[in-house]
Write a structure and sequence with these properties.
Layout lengths: L5 E3 L1 H5 L8 E4 L4 E4 L8 E4 L2 E2 L13 E2 L3 E7 L7 H8 L5 E2 L6 E6 L2 E6 L4 E2 L3 H6 L23 E4 L2 E7 L18 E2 L8 H6 L32 H4 L10 E7 L6 E6 L5 E6 L7 E3 L1 E5 L2
Parallel strand pairs: 1-2, 15-18
Antiparallel strand pairs: 2-3, 3-4, 4-5, 6-7, 7-9, 8-11, 9-10, 10-19, 11-18, 12-13, 13-19, 14-17, 15-16, 16-17
């Protein structure tokens, strides 16, 4: 009995997404590809080992999207790290702890694996306080627009042998934000939000049922996947509306284009809401929702 594997040139192999464990043959490169059920093209076997990059804790297979922008599912804090342990590890004591044992949401974000808590870990914390813990940009620089003294953005935490850069989500399409054709600096699903990491990851896992009807049932971001495509979390599940508790605003990385003292915040009135306030602002609405990016 002879076994034949799917075969073709490099372009044809790149277009294949085969079940976990199946092989394909790249006749052009004279290489074998190992497939995982979700990654287009699979992984080229080098020597006798397949070069498969680590994907961290929890689910290994995507339930929605792809390895550029996609969703793996949830990871329990007991299998990863709690909010209090994370804050302690990076020296962030400002604000008030909450939801320390929240589960984590695991995503592919622009080709990187990141984990984001379902609920914000602290409230009454300012952007500047997060910046001074080195946990806004995750890029080993002082960041594009420091608040207070310049501080290297180098917060890293090690969990089960893997290193993770600690940063904030990107809530706007550019940094600094650039006013769009709609002329709005704040509002629901506005041009400034389009193309953002927030939209690309949280829109497709949100149910599309909104506590505040000003959020559109069909968003207008051409770069984002429709609501509910990967999962169906509610406003309460994701704490993106103020009626479900403190910290419903999530600080994001970007500086607002019309006022460099302001930083972007998302949530509070729903998953599509975009706003900004001064980097030093603190009240119970403002929350810390970190993004932990796997270092590979």
């Amino acid at each position: 009995m002879r076994t034949r594997f799917l075969r073709g040139n490099t372009s044809e192999n790149n277009g294949l997404t085969l079940p976990i464990g199946e092989l394909s043959i790249d006749l052009e490169k004279k290489a074998v590809r190992l497939h995982d059920g979700s990654t287009p093209g699979g992984y080229e076997i080098v020597g006798q080992q397949a070069h498969v990059p680590p994907v961290g804790p929890g689910p290994k297979t995507l339930v929605g999207g792809d390895t550029t922008w996609g969703f793996y599912g949830e990871v329990a804090s007991t299998d990863f790290i709690s909010g209090d342990a994370l804050a302690s590890a990076i020296g962030l004591s400002a604000g008030t702890s909450q939801h320390s044992t929240s589960d984590w949401l695991k995503f592919a974000s622009n080709g990187q694996v990141i984990l984001v808590p379902k609920l914000s870990f602290r409230h009454s914390v300012s952007w500047e306080q997060i910046y001074q813990a080195g946990a806004v940009y995750g890029d080993d620089t002082n960041g594009s627009n420091p608040s207070g003294a310049a501080r290297l953005q180098d917060a890293v935490v090690t969990v089960d042998g893997f290193d993770y850069r600690v940063r904030l989500l990107r809530g706007a399409g550019a940094d600094p934000t650039v006013q769009g054709a709609d002329g709005l600096w704040y509002g629901y699903d506005i041009d400034l939000s389009h193309g953002s990491e927030w939209n690309r990851l949280l829109y497709p896992i949100h149910s599309g049922v909104h506590t505040d009807a000003n959020n559109p049932t069909t968003h207008s971001d051409p770069n984002a996947t429709p609501f509910g495509s990967w999962a169906s979390y509610s406003d309460a599940d994701l704490l993106v509306h103020n009626s479900f508790g403190n910290g419903s605003y999530s600080w994001c990385q970007e500086t607002n284009g019309d006022n460099t003292d302001n930083r972007v915040i998302r949530g509070y009135n729903g998953v599509s809401f975009f706003f900004r306030n001064t980097a030093t602002a603190t009240n119970a609405f403002y929350g810390w929702r970190p993004a932990l990016e796997l270092v590979v």
